Amino acid sequence: MIKAHPLHGPNKLKLGVFSTNADGGLAITDVPERWTASWQDNLTAAQIADRAGLEFMLPIARWRGFGGRNKVREWSFETFTWAAALATATEQIGLFMTVHVPLVHPLYAAKALATVDHISQGRAGLNIVCGWNPKEFGMFGTPLVEKGYDQAAEWIEILERLYASAEPLDYEGSYYTLEEAVSRPASLQVPRPVTMNAAFGGPGRDFAAARCDYLFTTFSEMSDAGKHVADIRERADKVGRDVGVYTVAHVVCRPTMEEARALLHALCR
Which of 31, 41, 60, 209 is deepest in the core (most CB within 10 A)? Predict the structure, then answer.
């Protein structure tokens, strides 16, 4: 019997590490110590977080990056293989994969996600992204659909039905058609690994409320946090679900507050 996923653990406040798989991480800066996202640094960071009892590692999915002098985030590790490798080198931390729905077929995603869930013994997580930078999508020749969250609803429905079905699956939707589709093994987590979605607009938050376990959001003032929590709880209540909320924070660590503020100023140049 597998253990509960770390995001279902006893700590009320769950902590994770975000975007280590991409050059620069969350800091777009020129400072010499900027995050280079080497594989060894990713491995070391994951093992430190694992030993410290943090609950999860969450990567971003990038293909092209933002360009500029440093070609920010052009260097990044693909998230399925990244998570699979880290799963063999850690023991308890949750490992997410970030997936662009329009770029990854749900049948492939189901197989890859279940593979990582088995390697990690039930520690896999899925961060569902429904749209992104048109230039990155253009590299694939894939235009953004008008109703991305409708496509995502079909995508996650297919994934769950593939895991649940004992027989080959036929599916006819607006975005996907499958004939006698099979994906074995199913994930260890039932009905599928824990899911997260970052959404700010109404349609996106309705999707997160109906289909995901957690909403990832951002805000500039702590006083705004309650508004985001109340919003997703209200949407989730309407469909009889309970959805958690995650956000992002920057940690600037130095021996004194003065040194920390000085470094923060340098990072923001």
Answer: 209
Chain segment 165-188, per-residue pLDDT in tens? 999 999 999 999 999 999 999 999
So where are the chain's domains? 6-267
Residue 3 — very low, low, confident or very high, per pLDDT cuts 50/70/90? confident
By the 8 A CB rule, do 65 and 15 touch? no
Write the single-letter amino acid at 150.
Answer: D
Q: What's the CATH code, domain 6-267?
A: 3.20.20.30
Distances (CA, A) of 65 to 17, 37, 52, 77, 172: 20, 14, 31, 12, 35
What does 147-216 look like in DSSP terms, one character per residue? THHHHHHHHHHHHHHHHH-SSPEEEE-SS-EEEEE---SPPSSSSSSEEEEE--SHHHHHHHHHH-SEEE
> What are 83's two structure tokens?
């998570």
Nearest-angstrom CA–CA distance, 21 and 27: 13
Phi, psi of 160 (to 5 degrees): -65, -40
Instruction: Determine phi and psi for 223, rounding to 5 degrees.
Output: -65, -15
Contact 159, 113 (CB under 8 A): yes
β 16-18/214-216 pair status: unpaired
φ, ψ of residue 125 to 5 degrees: the values are -140, 155
Q: Which helix or strand (DSSP H or E) is residue 16 part of?
A: strand 16-18
DSSP 70: T
Q: Are 209 and 230 in contact (CB under 8 A)?
A: no
The overall pTM is greater than 0.85: yes
Q: Is 235 left (phi over 0), alpha (psi -120 to 50) or beta?
A: alpha
